Amino acid sequence: MNRDAIQQEIADIIKEMLHMSFVDKDTVLIGTAGVLDSMTLIRLLAELEKRFDFTMDEDDMTLDSISSVRNLTEWVIQSKGENP
């Protein structure tokens, strides 16, 4: 699966979870302008582990790595150990 496909799937997951009509690579996920609360973030991360078949390493996760769809995509790719 290439980077664009992963990014689109992450955006689609967020749209589905939050019943949003539009999510793109620049959508802010956390912080004051973010669309996710802490419980939804946990659900999202669990769903990403399941969909992309990897085990999350919390040591590699930073606030920046989950701050946007673009950054979350890069974190998922790194966590999977792939380079699409």
UniProtKB/TrEMBL annotation:
Coiled-coil parts of chain: none
Domain Carrier: residue ranges: 1-80
SUPFAM superfamilies in UniProt: ACP-like (SSF47336)
Protein name listed in UniProt: Acyl carrier protein
Name of one Pfam family that matches: PP-binding
